[in-house]
């Protein structure tokens, strides 16, 4: 949205500038995928193995989980780091998700399932447009897209130290 850059200071304090290298996104991507894999291990993979003891099912679920995690992280990154995924930005389904996620950043109680809007519909958390007051305060989706902020790379300096060593 509009306004100064605000980032979680994971590796450095007072992060107010956006990163400028694609390679420094590795730790962020790894942490996202890892958290999704851990959650899936506890809720799907582990229980499936305990119930069936079926190796083919286990391997299939693990492969499917890896693919799904990669898709989720890639779409998330395409929304937050638009310069890295220009072809995806042009897809109709992506434009809907991008607007859906933009609304979530303004009203964080709405559109919480940004990759599965049907879940927002089912749980009553879907919001398809901003109110006039919200547009006045935060701007429109099109205005935000005209003023891209680039992409955030919180692990930038950590990876540079590792690579330079």
From TrEMBL:
User: Highest lineage ranks of the organism?
Assistant: unclassified sequences, metagenomes, ecological metagenomes
Which keywords does this Swiss-Prot/TrEMBL entry list? Membrane, Transmembrane, Transmembrane helix
Segments crossing the lipid bilayer: 33-50, 56-79
Annotated protein name in UniProt: Fatty acid hydroxylase domain-containing protein
Protein species of origin: marine metagenome
